[in-house]
Amino acid sequence: MIVVKVGGSAGIDYGAVCADLAALWEEGRRFVLVHGGSGETNRVAEALGHPPRFVTSPSGYTSRFTDRETLEIFEMVYCGKVNKGLVERFQRLGVNAVGLSGLDGRIFEGRHKDSVRAVENGKVKVLRGDHTGTVERVNVGLVTLLLDAGYLPVLNPPAVSYGGVAINVDGDRAAAALAAALGAEALLLLSNVPGLLRAFPDEASLIRQIPADDVEGYLEFAQDRMKKKVLGAAEAVRGGVGRVVLGDARAERPVSAALAGAGTVVS
Ligand code: ADP
């Protein structure tokens, strides 16, 4: 069992990811796909007159401030356009995919964090009304029910809080929690870079191997959202996942390439 997370940044080739997954599925390999949609969410939010607001925590992590309106736009894009677009691609390729969010059947569950500490103009402020959180529990039963019945699950944030509220969660870390809960042999985090770069954006500075017991030691090379991927990789290997690959979703056969070790391999 392999969990594949494909991001939502510019340059990602969803067609290549789906075609590669469909070919491997046909050979009998089993996958769960988790996807992002941040680039498209930003575009739709701008078009609807509610531009995205990104905040940086005092420890340097960047996240989307998710008020109720942002959450609804996020759901339109993630659960609607992107998820159904991927499911449609799989259907065209002859793979019976089922698209669900973390809300559906409580697939991704976590605590709702209503306020966030953010650095703005050099000062730390507390912003309230945030609909975010972190995945703490995964409904593995529902995911395996689908897999055992022959369906390819295509999953996305939001998650659901213990109180039943939709919360925006990081997709990489949700995929890491899922991979750990499923006892996956590998987790592939595919994005629009070749992997973790020692000197971003110099693609020649690719870090090819990270030892499983020192993933956090590599956090210093990751800026902004890449930090979440490194953190997700650390959580997955700590949770028993055999191998995490930070790979390139712009490649021709991006899943096969990552499985063959292209990218940054954490093991
Ligand atoms: P996705 O939406 O595909 O999951 P993100 O945009 O969240 O991807 O994260 C990937 C981005 O992280 C890259 O496009 C790049 O701009 C940024 N990044 C920051 N530091 C690094 C680094 N050291 N190596 C690679 N990418 C990095």
Automatic annotation (TrEMBL):
Instruction: Specify the superkingdom.
Output: Bacteria
Enumerate the spans annotated as Aspartate/glutamate/uridylate kinase domain: 1-246
One of the GO BP terms on file: lysine biosynthetic process via aminoadipic acid
Return the SUPFAM superfamilies for the record. Carbamate kinase-like (SSF53633)
Q: A GO molecular-function term, please?
A: ATP binding
* Site feature (Transition state stabilizer) residues: 5, 229
Q: Which reaction does it catalyse?
A: [amino-group carrier protein]-C-terminal-N-(1,4-dicarboxybutan-1-yl)-L-glutamine + ATP = [amino-group carrier protein]-C-terminal-N-(1-carboxy-5-phosphooxy-5-oxopentan-1-yl)-L-glutamine + ADP
Report the Gene3D superfamilies cross-referenced here: Acetylglutamate kinase-like
InterPro entries linked to this entry: AceGlu_kinase-like_sf, AcgluKinase_fam, Asp/Glu/Uridylate_kinase, Glu/AcGlu_kinase, LysZ
Intracellular or extracellular location(s): Cytoplasm
Function text: Catalyzes the phosphorylation of LysW-gamma-alpha-aminoadipate.
- NCBIfam families xref list: argB, PRK14058.1-1, PRK14058.1-3
Q: Which PANTHER family match?
A: [LYSW]-AMINOADIPATE KINASE, N-ACETYLGLUTAMATE SYNTHASE
Under what name is this protein listed?
[LysW]-aminoadipate kinase
Please tell me the species this chain comes from. Deinococcus budaensis
